[in-house]
Amino acid sequence: MAIALLFAVLATPATAAIGTALDTCIARVQPHDTPATMFGVRDRFDCRRRQSSYGSGDFWIRSRPFVAPGTMTAVRFASTWQDRVTLYVLHADGHITRHGFDSGHAGNNLMLGATFQFMLPPRAAPPVQILWRVERSLNLRGVISGARIADHHQAAGSELGMAALYAAFAGMCLALLIYNLALWAALRQAFQPAYCLMVLCLLGYAFSSSGLLGQITDIDNNDRMRINYLLLAASAVAALTFARAFFERRVFDGWLRPASSAVAGAVIVTTIGFALFAPHFARPIDAAVNLSYLLLLGLVPAILWRAWRLRSNHLWIFALAWGGPVFLAGVRILAAMNVIAWHWWIDQSTLLAMAMEAALSSLGVAYRIRLLSVERDEAREQEIAARLLAATDPLTGLLNRRAFLEQAIGREGEQRLILADIDHFKTVNETIGHDGGDEVLRVVARALQAAVPAEGLVARVGGEEFALIVPAGVPFDAEGVLDRLRAERMPFDMTVTASVGTCVGPLLREIDWKALYRCADRALFEAKAAGRDRVRDAAPLFRAA
Fold first, then answer.
1. At 119, is the secondary structure helix, strand, or coil?
2. CATH number of the 19-154 domain
3. What does the pLDDT average to over 121-125?
4. Which of 39, 58, 225, 454 is the most buried (most CB within 10 A)?
5. What would the 3-class secondary structure string for 340-403 be?
6. Residue 121, pLDDT above cutoff 90
7. Is 263 helix (H, G, I), strand (E, B) or coil?
8. Does the global pTM surpass 0.70?
């Protein structure tokens, strides 16, 4: 989807900025002006100063003479804030035709890319010059911008190219939304809903800025621009919210968090002010809006500096994903402040910045998810290791008493408990030392572990005492345990023996364990009393009815 969007962006300039650009001149409307006289006068029109320098009001905009491109000519120009536009077309035979619309009924002439278009019907005499009368224009960035003429094939190609661009952008946004909502259901990370909110706002802004909102609803074009302003502000604040959720919390701790909240509030408040009060106080409010966006861009180096200083894991991916969008946003703000001249690319840079922001930020999200996966795997490994440490005897690696009981108590059916105790272990320690005694314990543990069947458990439950649990129905030879111990090579070739006591009984509850342990312990005592290095089996215990 991102590749399709890239191809659409690369192909669109060849179709969107189509035809022949018209040089235009501006003059204020005066009483008793007529189209015929305005086509003829020379000294009233200013062709050098920027249109925006004239402020708001009613204006005549006249093109220089041109050669029509074909039998049917399209006149195209960018959508700006005005109440009414009347188009006068001078033909080669001197005849003047009239076309026009007001902002409340602009939908029929609004094309994708927020461009107005008039298709001039074919006449025997081709058009040679165009005159616009624009009423109640705010003229914040110009009265008539991007005026061009093209034939109907070029106009259709432009619409098709813009449709491909916006369709690719919308498809990318929908794919990113579905992808991240699905991931959010599994991961529940704060940056995921923030990212989805940003993508939704970008999608809404593209819907309004493309002109599609006006085409579908025939909404007043000035109201469409109010909505456009609001959705752009929402997108900017959502992007800042995503950045705050994307970075570690410590990056925004201190002054940066309240500063970013204040800037976001300024963007929202000034934009709402413009939407509510324009065209009244439009210029000072627009200046405040531009200032708030400049402050928002000013936060970017502060965020990057804090992230670098605190060695954030997400600095490089954020810089990669947001470098291009921030640059394009800066260019758009400079154009909005009339520092640089209007251009089709600048007018469309917001959409391009959004596409880059959404697509490249998805890389950041994927990188964050990868880090989360690594962190969770490490945490899971640490948790498993901690559980193993808590459940095992550190010297022998067998289960400790607590873990042994947790796994043993509750087993269904009769169980055989085997208690093994090393004979004369105190003498072993005195003879070969405690290090040698520890090695004896490890050797005995390995022998018991090898002797117990897969269904059984083995644990070290005391200093030199070991316990085994084996289902009574599983063949098990306790004498074989002693034979295995006798076959083991002990430290310093020392002879080490053990005594074993067994008992069979239920093991569903803790009280069963206590009874079974007492029974096996008595059998173990009998083995010790009979001379050690032997096995004694106690009579089975029966479950109470």
1. strand
2. 2.60.40.2380
3. 84
4. 225
5. CCCCHHHHHHHHHHHHHHHHHHHHHHHHHHHHHHHHHHHHHHHHHHHHHHHHECCCCCCECHHH
6. no
7. helix
8. no
375 has pLDDT over 90: no
What is the band of 357 on the pLDDT scale with cuts at 50, 70, 90?
low
Torsion of CA 511, 514, 517, 521, to 10 degrees: -140
Output the pLDDT for position 14.
Answer: 41
Which phi and psi (to 5°) does residue 149 adopt? -120, 145
Tell me how far apart the alpha carbons of residues 494 and 227 are, in angstroms, rounded to a whole number: 90
Q: Per-residue pLDDT averaged across 301-323, rounded?
A: 82
Sheet containing strand 110-111, strands side by side: 20-21, 148-151, 73-78, 115-120, 110-111
Give the integer Cα–Cα distance in Å for 500 and 154. 98
Angle subtended at Cα 335 by Cα 332 and Cα 340, rounded to the nearest 5 degrees: 130
Residue 233: how many other CB atoms lie within 10 Å = 26
Distance CA 294, CA 354 (A): 17
- 422, two tokens: 């090393």
Bigger pLDDT: 159 or 3? 159
Residue owning tokens 């690319």: 345
Cα dist from 20 to 133, 440, 464, 493, whole Å:
21, 96, 97, 102
pLDDT digits (tens, 9 = 90+) for 72-105: 688 999 999 999 999 999 999 999 999 999 999 8
Q: Is the peptide bond before 491 cis (omega within 30 degrees of 0)?
A: no
Q: Which residue has the higher pLDDT, 542 or 150?
A: 150
Task: Tell me what the pLDDT averaged over the chain comes to.
Answer: 85
Q: Which of 140-149, 336-345, 417-426, 497-506 has the lowest mean pLDDT?
A: 336-345
Distance CA 510, CA 516 (A): 10
In sequence order, what DSSP letters do the residues of 488-523 get, joined into one string? SPPGGG----EEEEEEEEEESSHHHHHHHHHHHHHH
pLDDT at 379: 64
Kindly report the CATH class assigned to 401-537.
alpha beta
Residue 221: the pLDDT is: 93
Give the residue, 374 or 441, on which the prediction is more confident. 441
Rounded distance, CA 3 to CA 250, Å?
35
DSSP H or E run through 127? strand 127-137
Identify the band that residue 364 occupies on the pLDDT scale cut at 50, 70 and 90.
Answer: low
Q: In the chain, what is the greatest distance between 2 CA atoms, to the nearest angstrom?
A: 133
What is the DSSP-derived secondary structure letter of residue 122?
A: P
Angle (CA) 51 52 54, round 5°: 75
3-state secondary structure of 28: strand
Query: Alpha carbon of 176 to those of 188, 324, 487, 490: distances in Å?
Result: 16, 19, 66, 65
* Alpha-carbon span 472 to 474, nearest angstrom: 6
Cα–Cα distance, 505 to 426 (Å, whole number): 32
Burial (CB count <10 Å: 0-12, 13-18, 19+), residue 477? exposed
Domain ranges of the chain: 19-154, 163-380, 401-537
